[in-house]
Design brief:
Shape: globular
CATH topology: Amino acid/polyamine transporter I
Radius of gyration: 22 Å
Number of domains: 1
CATH architecture: Up-down Bundle
Oligomer: single chain
Strand content: under 5%
CATH superfamily: Amino acid/polyamine transporter I
Order of helices and strands: EEHHHHHHHHHHHHHHHH
Strand order of the largest sheet: 1-2
Number of strands: 2
Distance between the termini: 13 Å
Number of helices: 16
C-alpha cells in the first residue's frame, strides 16, 4: 500500500513491477498510473481542451434544462436559486482546485476522499458519485427526446434517446483527443445560440414594455424551503468543473491546468447562467404562462424569435446534447476505471484500457447501456436523483481539504500554517460543506431514498471486497 503521509514521495507500483516517485510540486511522469494491462491513460490534453471539455459537459445551454421546473418550484426566482447554488459550487470549486493541484489521478472525488479521509470513505463517496456520473448521460438522452419532441412530435422519444446514446458512445470509443476536438466546435455553436437567445429575450422584454427589476433576486418573496428545493435541482448545471478532475491523468500539465480549468469553468458558467435566467424570468415571471413546464425553454424560444429561431435553438441544443453526452460518458467511464484499477470493482472488467485507443472501452459501453434507460424516466425524477450523488461528492471534497489541512498541520508543513491557510483550507471548505448539505437535504424524498439504497449497496460491495470488513480496504494506488 502506498505511503500517503503528507510531504512524502509516494511510490506507485503497478502490476508490471515498475515504481514511480512523484513529488507533489512537480509534474508527474508522462504516463498515468499503471493498470492491470500495464498501460496508462495517455497525457494528450492541454488547458484549452480541458476547459472546452468541462464546458461541453456542463453545456452553456444546460441553463434551459430545468428552467421551467425550478421557476415553478421557486415562484419565479430562478436567478436567486442559481445564485444560491453558485455559492455552494464556488466554495466547492476552490476545494476541487486545491485537491487537483495535490493529486493528479483519474479518480476525482473517489481518490481525494480516499487519500484524505481513508480508503473506506473514499470508496463509499466514489460509489455515491457514480450515481450522478453514470446517470448523467441518461438525463442527457432524455433531454434530447424532450427538445426534439417540441419540433418533431410525431417521432417517438425512444428514437432520439437511442440515437444520442449510439453517437456519443461511438465518439468516446475513438479516443479522448478526438472527443476533445469535436467538443471545441460543439461548445462554440452552443455559445452562439445561447447569445442569440439572450439578444432575442432582451429585445422581447423591451418591445413588450417590461422593465428590468430585482424581483427574481428578491429573497423576501420566496420561502427559503422553496428556494433551496429549486436550487437543489441546479447542481447538474455546474457538474462540468467536477468532471474535468477525472481527466487529470490525461492532462499534459495536471498540477497547473486542472485547477485553472475548474475555476475558469465555474466563473464563466455562473455569470452566463445568471444573465440568461434573469432575462427569461423577467420575460416570464409566471412560467405557467408558457404552458409546457418541462419543455418551457423551446416554447420561450418560439415566443421571442418565432418558429425559425425555435428550430435554430433546438438545433443548437442538439450540439449541447452531443457535447454533454461525450464528456459525461467519458468522465463516468474514467471514474469506474479508477475504482476498477484499485480492485474495488472487478479489475478484469472495469480496470482495463483498450490497447489501441487508451480508452476504458468496456466502461464506455456500460455507461451507454445505462443511458439508454432514459426512455423510462421523467426529467424531474432524473435530475433530483443525479443531484443526490453530486452533493455527496461536493461535500466530501470539502471535507477532504479539511482532512489534509489537519494532517499537514500535524506534520508541520508550512503551507498549513497561518491565517490564510486556515481561511482557505478550513473556513471556506466548512462553509462549502454546510451549503452542500443544506441543498442535499432539500432534494425530494424519492431521490434521497433511492440514493440511500444505492449507498447501502455500496456498503455491501465494500463488505464483499474486504471479506466482511476483515481485510483492510486498499487505498487508491496513486501518488500525490
Amino acid at each position: 500500500m502506498p505511503d500517503s503521509t503528507p510531504g512524502a514521495a509516494t511510490g506507485t507500483t503497478g502490476t508490471t513491477g515498475r515504481t514511480r516517485h512523484t513529488a507533489p510540486d512537480r509534474e508527474p511522469a508522462p504516463d498515468g498510473p499503471d493498470t492491470a494491462g500495464g498501460a496508462g491513460l495517455r497525457r494528450t490534453l492541454k488547458l484549452r481542451h480541458i476547459v472546452f471539455l468541462g464546458l461541453a459537459f456542463m453545456a452553456p445551454l444546460a441553463v434551459f434544462d430545468t428552467f421551467g421546473l425550478v421557476s415553478e418550484q421557486t415562484g419565479g426566482h430562478v436567478p436567486l436559486a442559481y445564485l444560491a447554488v453558485l455559492v455552494a459550487v464556488g466554495l466547492t470549486a476552490l476545494s476541487y482546485a486545491r485537491m487537483a493541484r495535490r493529486i493528479t489521478s483519474a479518480g476525482s472525488v473517489y481518490t481525494y476522499a480516499g487519500k484524505a479521509l481513508g480508503a473506506p470513505v473514499g470508496f463509499l463517496v466514489g460509489w455515491s458519485a457514480t450515481l450522478d456520473y453514470v446517470l448523467l448521460p441518461m438525463l442527457n438522452a432524455l433531454l434530447a427526446a424532450i427538445y426534439m419532441g417540441a419540433v418533431l412530435p410525431a417521432v417517438p422519444a425512444w428514437v432520439w434517446v437511442l440515437s444520442t446514446v449510439v453517437v456519443c458512445t461511438a465518439l468516446n470509443l475513438v479516443g479522448v483527443r478526438m472527443a476533445a476536438k469535436v467538443n471545441v466546435a460543439l461548445v462554440i455553436v452552443q455559445a452562439g445560440v445561447a447569445v442569440a437567445f439572450l439578444v432575442f429575450a432582451v429585445r422581447a422584454i423591451t418591445s413588450h414594455g417590461r422593465s428590468f427589476g430585482t424581483a427574481g433576486f428578491d429573497l423576501t418573496t420566496v420561502p427559503v424551503t422553496d428556494l433551496l428545493g429549486g436550487a437543489s435541482l441546479l447542481a447538474l448545471s455546474f457538474l462540468g468543473f467536477d468532471a474535468v478532475s477525472t481527466l487529470s491523468e490525461e492532462a499534459e500539465r495536471p498540477h497547473r491546468d486542472i485547477p485553472r480549468a475548474i475555476l475558469l469553468i465555474v466563473a464563466a458558467a455562473g455569470v452566463f447562467f445568471l444573465a440568461v435566467t434573469y432575462a427569461m424570468q423577467t420575460l416570464f415571471p409566471d412560467v405557467s404562462a408558457v404552458g409546457d413546464i418541462v419543455g418551457a425553454s423551446p416554447e420561450i424560444a418560439k415566443y421571442i424569435g418565432g418558429a425559425a429561431f425555435q428550430a435554430v435553438f433546438v438545433g443548437g441544443y442538439l450540439t449541447a446534447v452531443l457535447g454533454c453526452g461525450l464528456t459525461q460518458q467519458m468522465s463516468a467511464a474514467r471514474l469506474l476505471y479508477a475504482m476498477g484499477r484499485d480492485g474495488m470493482l472487478p479489475r478484469g472488467v472495469f480496470g482495463r484500457l483498450d490497447a489501441r485507443t487508451g480508452v476504458p472501452a468496456v466502461n464506455v459501453l456500460v455507461v451507454g447501456a445505462v443511458a439508454a434507460s432514459a426512455v423510462f424516466l421523467d426529467l424531474g425524477s432524473a435530475a433530483s436523483l443525479i443531484n443526490f450523488g453530486a452533493y455527496v461528492a461536493f461535500a466530501a471534497v470539502n471535507l477532504a481539504v479539511i482532512g489534509f489541512w489537519v494532517r499537514d498541520r500535524r506534520a508541520g508543513r508550512p503551507e498549513a500554517r497561518g491565517l490564510g491557510a486556515a481561511v482557505l483550507q478550513l473556513l471556506l471548505p466548512v462553509l462549502g460543506f454546510a451549503v452542500n448539505v443544506a441543498l442535499w437535504v432539500s432534494l425530494d424524498t424519492p431521490a434521497k431514498v433511492v440514493g440511500a439504497v444505492w449507498a447501502l449497496v455500496g456498503v455491501g460491495v465494500l463488505a464483499l471486497r474486504t471479506g466482511g470488513f476483515r481485510r483492510p480496504v486498499r487505498a487508491p494506488d496513486l501518488a500525490e
